[in-house]
Write a structure and sequence with these properties.
With about 170 residues, the protein is mostly helical.
Length: about 170
């Protein structure tokens, strides 16, 4: 398997970062929501590490996505489907990169955790609204993204899911 993406498939870096990033984004989003909704959940160093890793991996994937060749679709798809797929992927990457810093900003304002408040120019309600809207969008987009990949593989015979699982495909 190649390290970088080719016209026929994803490389090891894209595949590995996709699954690591998916876990980190979902885990951090759920953990941060639990910390805000449940008083018994206290954000600790592990949660901060999870957020920093989620942001770092998502930022890396954004840079990687725009600086490397992206594989062509395996079968003809309507342009609206391609646009929707790529928009969802970018939304998840942006959410994974930004949500941790919004959450850290909320923590910095409510506790003496010593976290940086990167959004100090904005009022509390703006940060809170952005965090909740972003969390909701990340969860909904992740569900639609996963559901569409499974539906495409089972109902339409789309081989995109096989490619991101690292299987070698013939044209």
């Amino acid at each position: 398997m190649r390290l970088r993406d080719t016209g026929m498939g994803f490389g090891v870096i894209t595949i590995g970062m996709h699954w690591v990033g998916a876990f980190l984004i979902i885990a951090f989003t759920l953990a941060s929501l639990a910390a805000l909704l449940l008083p018994s959940v206290i954000p600790g160093r592990g949660m901060i590490l999870l957020g920093v890793l989620s942001s770092a991996v998502s930022s890396f994937r954004l840079i990687w996505r725009f600086s490397h060749f992206y594989p062509l679709p395996m079968a003809p798809k309507p342009p609206v489907v391609l646009i929707a797929q790529r928009t969802m992927a970018l939304a998840l990457l942006l959410g994974g990169a930004m949500l941790p810093w919004l959450f850290f900003s909320l923590l910095a304002r409510s506790t003496a955790a010593g976290l940086p408040d990167l959004f100090s120019v904005f009022p509390q309600w703006v940060i809170t609204a952005l965090f909740w809207a972003g969390s909701l969008l990340v969860i909904l987009t992740a569900l639609v993204h996963a559901g569409a990949a499974i539906f495409g593989a089972l109902a339409r015979g789309d081989r995109s899911l096989q490619r991101i699982l690292g299987r070698k495909l013939e044209p």
